[in-house]
Amino acid sequence: MPDTHDHPVTGDDEIRTHYLVGLDLTGRKVVVVGGGSVAQRRLPNLVSAGADVHIIAIDPTPAVESYPGVTVHRRAYVAGDLDGAWYAMACTDDPAVNAAVVAEAEQRHTFCVRADDARFGTAVTPASGRHRDVHFGVLASGDHRLSAALRAAISKALADGSLTVDDDAPHPAGVALVGGGPGDPDLITVRGQRLLMEADVVVADRLAPAELLAALGPQVEIIDAAKVPYGRAMKQEAINDVLVAKAREGKFVVRLKGGDPYVYGRGFEELQACVDAGVPVTVVPGISSSIAAPAAAGIPVTHRGVTHEVVIASGHVPPGHPDSLIDWSAMAKLRGTLVLMMAVERVEVFADALLAGGRPATTPVAMIENGSLPTQRVLRTDLAGAGAVAAAEGLRPPAIVIVGDVAGFTEGAV
């Protein structure tokens, strides 16, 4: 097919000025021709905008084919496929097909993006981002790397407060339970980082990444809710009370926790307290150290052909304690990976319980202190020697213990 278009092209260096506009695509047909990586990148924004998305592709990638909220037609493009379309995208790796899609779109007065050569399309896709309820886009005369870099810079500046808007309304009063990740400040989620930067008050755990708190402005009230293992601690009831009280003062409160709020973080108790008090509350999941700390040490908690199960267990009370809810004899019979949290002071006790239940003495054990941080330390031994090694090496919290064959893995060697 010839590469046809209605607009003259003056050369490869031609710079066009585009009119930046927002389209209401709710319930309106959008046709994407092509099912590769380019189409895949466009789908999230189209679907979130409520568009009725139709993919036409001979061999779409699995991610495109299974993307929720779209209709996939596994075939080649044919003339007439843009019937009823409000917007179109030509995203194939065949220039002739892309040209034909643009030509049909122009005949139908339908704006169309041509991914392989933006000059020949009638629309271009900006690098877009969101801040609160604001959706912004960047166009750089077809320089996609520049527009993407500017988008990233603007997003970061809005999130960290270095770029402010006079009409930037404060976040509504309420509480957000935010998981800060395993320790490295870069491992907080994007949403968690954004909400943290909007906080009036931050109620922080001891394991919440300190660098995140250091980046907050002087106007943010920081309340220490540290719970030192086997030491002083702010009572949970007092934490619940301060979350509710500060929110009732009309403030937006972020409860910043290490790891994930719902993995031994008592986050659901705090959610219940807020709900009972009529305080709006949202939960932002975090990267749990139970999975992330082993990964940071080069240990997968699952591995094909080695383990099909992962059990995360609390070590805050020993086996046989009246408050223990764990059947340690059953735990010992499992063949998969056991991740022990809050077990530093009782490594020998838990090892003995597993040995007594039949877990082999040669089972590999890895103990990871300060996972994901520059001070990370990994101790490797077996189940029989775990208690002695922990004591001799002065293992200290925060640390987790991994029991199972994967604990013997080292990076690059299985």
Structure notes:
- This protein is an alpha/beta fold.
- The protein folds into 4 domains: 29-125, Rossmann fold (3-Layer(aba) Sandwich), CATH 3.40.50.720; 129-160, no CATH class; 174-287, Tetrapyrrole methylase, N-terminal domain (Cobalt-precorrin-4 Transmethylase, domain 1); 291-408, Methyltransferase, Cobalt-precorrin-4 Transmethylase, Domain 2, CATH 3.30.950.10.
- The chain has helices at residues 37-48, 62-65, 95-107, 144-160, 190-197, 210-214, 236-248, 267-276, 289-296, 328-333, 347-356, 386-392; strands spanning 29-33, 52-57, 70-74, 87-90, 111-114, 127-131, 134-138, 174-179, 201-204, 221-224, 252-257, 281-284, 310-314, 337-341, 364-369, 377-382, 399-403.
- Helix 7 (236-248) packs across helix 8 and helix 11 packs antiparallel against helix 12.
- The longest helix has 17 residues, at 144-160.
- It starts with 28 loop residues before the first strand and ends in an 11-residue tail after the last strand.
- Mean pLDDT is 90; it is low at 1-12.
Q: What is the topological layout?
A:
Blueprint: E1 29-33, H1 37-48, E2 52-57, H2 62-65, E3 70-74, E4 87-90, H3 95-107, E5 111-114, E6 127-131, E7 134-138, H4 144-160, E8 174-179, H5 190-197, E9 201-204, H6 210-214, E10 221-224, H7 236-248, E11 252-257, H8 267-276, E12 281-284, H9 289-296, E13 310-314, H10 328-333, E14 337-341, H11 347-356, E15 364-369, E16 377-382, H12 386-392, E17 399-403
Parallel strand pairs: 1-2, 1-4, 2-3, 4-5, 8-11, 8-12, 9-10, 9-11, 13-14
Antiparallel strand pairs: 6-7, 14-17, 15-16, 15-17
Helix pairs in contact: 7-8, 11-12
